[in-house]
Amino acid sequence: MDIGINEKDRKKIAEGLSHLLADTYTLYLKTHYFHWNVTGPMFNTLHLMFETQYNELALAVDAVAERIRSLDFYAPGTYKEFIRLASIEESDSVPKAQDMIKELVAGHEAVCRTARSVFPAVEKAADEASADLLTQRLQIHEKTAWMLRSLLEK
Ligand SMILES: [Fe+2]
Description:
Layout: H1 7-37, H2 43-70, H3 79-85, H4 97-117, H5 119-124, H6 128-151
Helix pairs in contact: 1-2, 1-3, 1-4, 2-6, 4-6
Bound molecules: fe (ii) ion.
Fe (ii) ion (FE2) binds next to loops.
């Protein structure tokens, strides 16, 4: 395989994208979990908002995984690997609606940090395709974090 990026650089980028995949999947699962279990006066708003968000995250994991494959590495896809690779913690109970929002803000911010950490390797290798994907993911996670954060204002 010769796409103009050497194996060492492709491996480094694929590893970074694997962390992004694990974080995105963990946030996907958390958002779907909250969609099922949210209660309280904001039920309708949050149930629907979380649905829009988990659908977007489900598409995103596919795009990230397929970018890893395009770099000729296998994409992680087991809970064991995702737990090892993710920087986002699972929720071990059902939080109150306001705490769900706070947890999701923290989750989206964590994905931003993970995506941003992959840029040095991507830029070194002039991997514009991965840079484009990372930029799109950053825009969406920063925007979603802002929208969720706005719900918390009194
Ligand atoms: Fe549903």
